[in-house]
Every structure is written in C-alpha cells, then in structure tokens.
Amino acid sequence: MKKRIEDLKILENKRLNEEFFVLKLKSDQTFEKILPGQFAEVRVDGSPTTFLRRPISIYDVDYDENTLYLLFKIAGDGTLKISELKAGENLNLVYPLGNSFTVGNVKRVLLIGGGTGVAPMLILGKYLKNEFKITPEFLLGYRSKELIIEKDKFNSLGTVYITTEDGSEGHKGLVTHHPVLQENNEDIDQIYCCGPEPMMKAVSGIAKDNNIPCEVSMENLMGCGIGACLCCVVDTYDEGNVITCTQGPVFNSNRLKWQI
C-alpha cells in the first residue's frame, strides 16, 4: 500500500485498562493491503509541547468496515492528548510506514510481545493464519493480570501463553523465562518479537543460541517516518547505521549490534 496522509474519523477511543487504549479509525478511502509490522505517524494537535508526530504500531485492520486500529499507552504529552480524543473527531495519520515481517517456509512460529509490543503481534497473527494457514503461538508479557489486553482476540487465532512479572496470571516472570521459549523450542521455525529493547535483545540471544531465525520490530523514537529527522538510527553489522523508520522497523535480530 502506498503511503498516504489522511484525516481519519475516530469511531471509538477505548480505554482497555490503566495503561492501554485502542483507537478505532475509519477512512473514506478503501484500504489496500497493510502489512504486519507497519506503523502510522500520528499528528498531535493542541499540544504545545508536542512538535513531532508520534509513531504507533498498527494493531488491526478490518477491510470490510474500512477501519484501522491503533494500540497505544500514555508515555508523554503527545499520547496523553491522543488519549483525550473523542468519537467524531478526526486524527491525521501518515500511513502505512516501514517494512514488515517476512514469512518463509515455516510451520511453527512463536510471536512474542511485551507492553505495547503486543500490537503488531495481533495483525501478524491474523496475517499468518489468513494468508498462510499457519496457526501462531503467542507469548505475551505484562507486569500484572490487570494489564492484559483483549486476550480473546489472540485466543481466536492460536495458542496464547501469558507471563506476568508478579505472577498474577500465567507464568511468573519475564517472557524469556517461559518454558515455551526456554525448554520447548526444538521445533520452532521462526520467532517474531516486539517490545522493550532489553526484552528483544534477550529473546534474540535465546533464538541465536538455539539456531532459530528471529525478527524484531524496533520501537525507536521515529519523529518523521520518512528518514529525514535521523532520530531512529540503529547500528547494524552489515550496513552500519540504518534508519529504522524506512529500513525497518523490522530487522533480522542477527543484524543488530544491540547497543542499549
């Protein structure tokens, strides 16, 4: 799908819990295919401290209703202002931006998300199931059960494993502690991951030790989305410094030097 700048109408701005919100947006134009891993740059109006657009992962797309879903949490003045938007208002997006996850000749895939990093895992799971007839496994990490979001949507696509740091639901600890990643990984053909960089670094280390291909979606600050502001540069082994918003956000984890 070609990039476009558009005002989308807000149908719903739903608060899921104390951290997460989902925006449901409708376009007057017909959507072409939006790929998993792509994101939108959201213009924040009426916030005097917010000068740059905010990058938000595309969480879901309904092509029949021509609606787009964005998952976000309040991280500063910009996302606070977005959280206050009401149904009926417009939101200006540049979308879809970036590259996408790749799918090879695979049978068993593990999709790992932490925090807002669960967002691209939902659209990726739907893509795998609908386009490739692959039933995904999800490994989703949260601080507590109160922060778990829309588990039914993930359950409808495949097997869901939950970790919580306080042990209030699922496996206690981080996603890297879960047996599906640590012990039951012999026949995993591909890992996809998005979340805090230390989490992705740890997951990629486990994947490398077990010879499992791994792709990660970086959550760098991406102020423009077109490679002009150079806020989102990452260092790679094969190409040196690359721009996340145009050459990513999805990378083979073995390419990254992982300077945290």
What number is the mean pLDDT? 92
Q: Number of domains in the coordinates?
A: 2
Cα distance, first to last residue? 33 Å
Stated plainly, the CATH topology of the largest domain is called Rossmann fold
| Largest sheet report | 7 strands, mixed
Question: Within the largest sheet, what's the order of strands?
Answer: 10-9-8-7-11-12-15
Order of helices and strands: EEEEEHEEHEHEEHEHEEEHE
| Low-confidence blocks of residues | none
Structure description:
The longest helix has 14 residues, at 119-132. The protein has two domains: 4-97, Translation factors (Elongation Factor Tu (Ef-tu), domain 3), CATH 2.40.30.10; 109-255, 3-Layer(aba) Sandwich (Rossmann fold), CATH 3.40.50. The mean pLDDT is 92. The protein has a seven-stranded mixed beta sheet, sandwiched between helices. It has helices at 77-83, 119-132, 151-155, 179-182, 197-209, 244-247; strands spanning 4-15, 20-26, 39-42, 54-62, 67-73, 90-97, 109-114, 137-142, 159-164, 171-172, 190-194, 214-217, 233-236, 240-243, 250-252. The protein is an alpha/beta fold and 260 residues long.
Topology:
Blueprint: E1 4-15, E2 20-26, E3 39-42, E4 54-62, E5 67-73, H1 77-83, E6 90-97, E7 109-114, H2 119-132, E8 137-142, H3 151-155, E9 159-164, E10 171-172, H4 179-182, E11 190-194, H5 197-209, E12 214-217, E13 233-236, E14 240-243, H6 244-247, E15 250-252
